[in-house]
Design goal:
Layout lengths: L1 H12 L4 H7 L14 H8 L5 H10 L10 H14 L8 H13 L8 H4 L10 E9 L5 E9 L28 H15 L4 H10 L10
Antiparallel strand pairs: 1-2
Helix pairs in contact: 8-9
Length: about 220
């Protein structure tokens, strides 16, 4: 309860500007881009990529989803209806839900907020949580069952304007599908022939250059 009260007080002191809170501490695992090296370092590697300008902005300020605006009154009504609705049936097993989201919170992938604060967050919308079963693999490639949480942003409440219906698709970055692994492997094989002493380090740089380890701040 103390933690929830403290978080509520922090939100109130920042006038419920969640983005300002997350950006204030660059060492927090909740800060955008916290798992990556500073963009000044990544610039030298990725500046030629066509999507780097967008990704750099995301790492520095957080992701942006282009959506059509919704009037404040129907948005608030939808929010209250969503709170009343709760989660989907698949996500009403309390212990399972806590187990899944506990891990996500510990790793800084999720932030739990008090329900009392939701009505004060500018533009906030709620997507009921569900849990779907899927397969994953372990470090040895063995197939394992895994429960994955989802946020249902297609469920329509009173306004009839769920978030997914308001997305401006023309402003989304097109998805490009292909096979990057074979081309990377071939390129690395070529490097191994030309520069046999540097092949291993070159391959490691591909994987490690973007990531960094940061200690959690106590």
């Amino acid at each position: 309860m103390a933690a929830r009260t403290n978080l509520g007080e922090i939100l109130e002191s920042y006038k419920y500007d969640l983005q300002a809170i997350l950006l204030e501490d660059a060492h927090s695992p909740l800060c955008p881009g916290s798992e990556f090296c500073p963009t000044a370092i990544l610039d030298s590697v990725l500046q030629g990529h066509p999507l780097w300008a967008r990704d750099k902005k995301t790492l520095m300020h957080g992701a942006h989803l282009p959506v059509e605006p919704i009037e404040e009154e129907p948005r608030l009504q939808d929010l209250l209806e969503a709170i009343e609705f709760g989660n989907h049936e698949s996500a009403k097993d309390g212990p399972k839900l806590l187990s899944i989201f506990g891990t996500e919170v510990e790793k800084g992938w999720q932030l739990t907020l008090p329900i009392s604060a939701l009505q004060h967050l500018p533009g906030a919308v709620i997507g009921p949580v569900g849990i779907v079963s899927q397969d994953s693999i372990d470090a040895f490639g063995h197939q394992l069952p895994k429960d994955r949480p989802i946020h249902d942003q297609s469920l329509s409440f009173g306004s009839g304007q769920p978030l997914n219906n308001r997305v401006i698709e023309d402003e989304l970055t097109p998805c490009q599908y292909g096979f990057s692994a074979p081309s990377i492997s071939l390129q690395d094989c070529g490097s191994a022939l030309d520069l046999p002493c540097r092949a291993n380090s070159a391959l490691k740089i591909r994987v490690q250059v973007g990531l960094q380890s940061r200690p959690l701040q106590g």
